[in-house]
Amino acid sequence: MKQTRILMDIPITVEICDPEAREYDIEQLFAYFMSIDEQFSPFRDTSMVSRFNAGKLKEDEWSDDFKKITTWCQRTSQETDGFFFADRDGIFDPTGLVKGWAIFRAAHMLLEVGYENFSVEAGGDFQSFGFNAEGKPWTIGIRDPFHPGQIVKVLQPGDLGVATSGSYLRGDHIADPVAGETLGDIVSLTVIAPNVFHADRFATACFAMGRAGLDFLEKRPAMAGYMIDRDGIATWTSNFPAFVVDHD
Question: How far apart are CA 103 and CA 100, in angstroms?
Fold first, then answer.
């Protein structure tokens, strides 16, 4: 059973390959993504993020997701020496990890129900468990930032998570917090991590580091990275090739 919806301004695809898959469970996931958008969208005046930035959200009104996201923003900033930052000009904007959080939580909702074979993809970020409809390991492609619709690498992440940050995906919204300037040398950075939430938050931070982002990942064997610069030259961590499969 597979469905795709446009939510959070991105395509979200849920595929469950267990024989007992129920449409109700997929609907519950889409409802959760809608809830995340309602809480964290900076484009909704009524979202928690917008109300927080307007000084209209009391702490006792914070949702469980909002509490955890704010905590993780602080933690990720500390873990990356400030290269992940959720405050821009005094405005709280946690979008650098919200998508990964939503996918991670959605996947665990399916695990809690008892599903073993499924994938959740949102805007190119990916979490899978078990096997696909053909009984084979799940795969996910890294998009070519210069040629829309083309794939540069196909990955087989197993039960790990995959996330990509890049100017071609979201516009030049990630900046170097030290220099205070929008990055231009790196156009795409894909991170493989123990789950999609960690992949997303570190992809955002390492993209902001520029070329040093791969060095950061190289020192952390639980993660792997693949970077493409504005000249189309790709570099990667030493453990990245283990996840690559052949493709036509």
Answer: 5
